[in-house]
Amino acid sequence: MKKILVTGAAGFIGFHLVKRLLETGHDVYGIDNLNAYYDVRLKLDRLRQLGIDVQEENFLRQKEVGSNTHSHFKFLQLDLTDEHRLDVLFEKEQFDVVANLAAQAGVRYSIDNPKVYVQSNVVGFINILEACRQNNIKHLVYASSSSVYGNRDEVPFSENDRVDHPVSLYAATKKSNELMAHVYSHLYGLPTTGLRFFTVYGPWGRPDMAPFLFTKALFEGKPIKVFNNGDLRRDFTYIDDIIQGVTGIIDKEVSQSDYRVFNIGNNNPEKLMDFIKFIQESSGKEAKLDFLPMQAGDVFQTYADIDQLQQYSGYKPQTSLKEGLQQFVHWYKEYYKVS
């Protein structure tokens, strides 16, 4: 079994990855800055699910978050921009693998808050690369994004496509991560694998994403904002399928200087209006629709070509959008105690 650092461990994908790694017997160390981009209580509740006895009053005072009740999981509140504390952690713990999922997420938020993205996604990532290089990490797996493809007409999106024209700063930071990782693989022999996530959703999901926003609006009787008048397509990928793909990469043996980038999606773009229909069916409620033009920084469609990842690790998504949304709505109703 491996000793694995998961950054962004209180985030949506990070939480599910930690949970799966613990279930399969790995020793896991999680870090997260627990920023207030969305409701911190959701992040703290994820940590509670992982066995961290969260003391909210200490978090609010910027002290240690809480004690650890899981023998194979440790957690530390830490920002990737804190280079000194990050270096001390790496030197002390001597990880085998790093799964870097920490990032400032969200395309639309990057339009109004660009400097936050540079600090978290660029400065934070170079600190991770340096810590990996200095401590002989055997494999760095990191989150990229389907956003790097920009507004492409040709589908499906392939890793062989040129991705030189991002339409948001968030996408630009993710492309920069791939370039920086390539340099560290080439110059220093650090094995790196970037994963371009395609619209991940499921229980414990992010409140700024469509499944959460639409479900919340339905139960509150508020209109759903439908951009581009509903003419959008997304390659929605259920969280369990994503985690199966990430752990498949972590379990692979890699060689020095290996550099790879993979799409990780569902290989099945869905129409936004079908997505809304499934949410209505799962919630038993009828949506009020507010049709709007395309938002700045958004793209018309995403569609993942996953052939390369399938050939490399056997990745094969199993969950239909209808089934996945049923699972999400069920979680939402239980977590927020709505009927």
TrEMBL record:
It comes from the Bacteria. Residues 4-265 form the NAD-dependent epimerase/dehydratase domain. Signal peptide: none annotated. Keywords: NAD. Transmembrane segments: none annotated. InterPro entries: Epimerase_deHydtase, NAD(P)-bd_dom_sf. Pfam families: Epimerase. This is NAD-dependent epimerase/dehydratase domain-containing protein. It comes from Flavobacterium pallidum.
